[in-house]
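Hey, can you fold this one?
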Amino acid sequence: MKRSAVSILTLIAALAAFSCSKPAKSREALIDDVLSKKQDVTILVTDSGLGGLSVAADIAARLPASGVFRRARIVFYNANFDKIGYNGLASEAEKDRIFDVILRAMEKRYRPDILLIACNTLSVVYDRTAFSRKAPFPAVGIVDTGVDLIASQFEKSPGATAILFGTKTTIENEAHKKALVARGFPAERIVGQACHKLAGAIERGIATEETVGYIRRFVDEALAKTGPVAGPLFASFNCTHYGYARQQFAEAFAAAGHPGIELLDPNPLLGDVLFQPAYLHRHPRTEVAVEVVSKLEITEQERGAIGPLLEAVSPDVAAAFRNYTRDLKLFEVSFERPKKK
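Sure. Predicted structure:
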């Protein structure tokens, strides 16, 4: 082979090696690219149920006056695949596999500019998926938002004890607790309380006997774990559904001898990533369109329970929820139902 040909091949190989060795952009840099370079965006909000609709509502309410983008398409994508839900699956590997399939489906159909994971369970699962390692868009999970909020409350209330309410997966994973301990907060002052089946009850009705009964039970169980506390006590909602039932939680704590307890809800803060001061008011107004899409049926009962709460924040999201699109081909996943004991 001629020397010139060898030199060209060597140069190509060197350039390829350099290209492959370039460090991937950080999530923050990818978000900055969206904010600084995009005028029209698709914002995907996903959850394993309907709790994340409150995040979509908050964003839809704030975007028009913000002027961050010229146009924003908000798509709420229900990532639930079956009535058993992610917490009903037999293993963590199954959760990872199924959510990975769904992420690929949402990317193929919507090509989002940014993904907001408005679900604590899926925020934990996301980082374990193969998709996350080569995602073509930034993803922001609500676990980090919740950890920041809890840490801020600890700093305001030295010596406080925190109760973390969440799903079985969220509490057993201990992602919030581990992150807080890593920041120097004492593990013995962080109490996790799993609230199995509460999210589903909330979707059926906020103030029903079923929902109120669950909340009273879980509040009592959490307080039994904390025992008498010398300092302040606060609680955090680490499932996006629970903020809908803030009043019911407050009443349960009051009945248990803790009136006026601080209840933290990270839902309204997840969207803050879109409203960074440097990019506000670039446009006179942001034109917003909203869609709600689900593979599973959203029943009239569920729409009746959640709809009025959304209406108070964003009529556009409430209207999209009422007129949601059910798409049986939204994604295709296979799974094995756990055997009944």
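Residues 24-141+269-326 form a domain with the Rossmann fold fold (CATH 3.40.50.1860). Let me know if you want another pass with a different chain boundary.
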